[in-house]
Amino acid sequence: MINYILIAHLLGATIWTGGHLILSLVVLPKALKTEQLAGLMAFEEQFEKIGMPALILQIITGLWMVYRLFPEVSLWFGFDNDLSTLITLKITLLALTVLVALHARFRVIPTLSAARLGFFALHIVAVTLLSVSFVIVGSLFRTGLS
Ligand code: HEM
What we know:
It contains four helices and no strands. The chain has helices spanning 4-34, 38-69, 82-108, 117-143. The protein binds protoporphyrin IX containing FE. Protoporphyrin IX containing FE is lined by residues 6, 9-10, 13, 16-17, 55, 58-59, 62-63, 65-66, 69, 87, 90-91, 94, 131, 134-135, 138-139, 141-142. Keywords: Membrane, Transmembrane, Transmembrane helix. It comes from Psychrobacter pasteurii.
């Protein structure tokens, strides 16, 4: 049977992780080299419109799939079996992503200048590494950890 929830989850993943890889590997190096913020801010502004809905879609479809795999919510958190470990890892990645993204959005971006670009770049690279980790941890649900 076609798994519409998984398809939506994978489409959201391509947007969230793909967008951040383009940001980190193409847009950010150019901004760091030229010390110009305009291109980076324009990309951020455009990407936010599709990136945030994609992240929300990931959370909804992800929790939906977790519930389908493991309806006992009280057993989601822990490291005593592969499924709980992977769910705990996904939710930890989510919490870290939200913290870094909120810090960037409300603390760093409002006072951003060319001089503080390096600090903003750290946030971008951190969210990108977290987004790739989401994909790696996601792939382990099918294979298991061993
Ligand atoms: C931006 C965030 C996320 C990305 C990029 C992402 C990416 C992925 C990818 C690539 C897979 C592999 C699917 C497969 O093997 O067929 C996956 C699977 C999965 N993800 Fe996520 N994910 C994200 C967030 C979440 C969240 C927040 C949860 C819930 C806590 C979650 C729960 C799951 C589950 C349960 C699977 C296994 C589905 C299955 O194999 O049937 N994901 N994810």
